[in-house]
Design brief:
mainly alpha; Arc Repressor Mutant, subunit A; 6 helices
């Protein structure tokens, strides 16, 4: 993949518009629409975009461990609210409940048994010929 294609991919990630990304990357405005579409079909460009997006998602979206660590901090009262006060008992309890659910501590298992019988009755009146 050359530098122009790489620039296109970077602009495409930013703009989510192939034509505008092609123009910003230095391609002609007259051919930007078709070149943008063609570049999005290149395997190398697709892989580059996928790798870059995965990196961005990892930075923006909390993973499971981060969420569990935050809930644990809230439950222990280590997190202050927006005014700088200690975490409320209600919020700490909610965090504890969510952690407990995550670890399967409050799953009610019910076993239901029995037989279900189905009888099909064909009692729809039909016209006779």
């Amino acid at each position: 993949m050359n530098e122009k294609q790489k620039a296109f991919a970077d602009y495409y990630i930013e703009l989510d518009n192939a034509t505008q990304a092609a123009i910003r990357a230095g391609y002609s405005e007259k051919t930007a629409y078709s070149i943008g579409g063609r570049l999005l079909k290149h395997v190398e460009v697709q892989e580059y975009i996928k790798e870059r997006m995965a990196g961005k998602d990892a930075q923006r979206i909390a993973d499971q461990d981060e969420i569990l660590a935050f809930l644990t901090q809230v439950m222990r009262g280590e997190v202050l609210d927006q005014l700088g006060f200690e975490t409320s008992v209600r919020d700490r309890k909610d965090a504890a409940i969510q952690l407990g659910k995550r670890h399967g501590m409050w799953i009610d298992k019910q076993q239901i048994s029995g037989e279900v019988g189905v009888k099909i009755v064909n009692d729809i009146p039909r016209k006779s010929n």
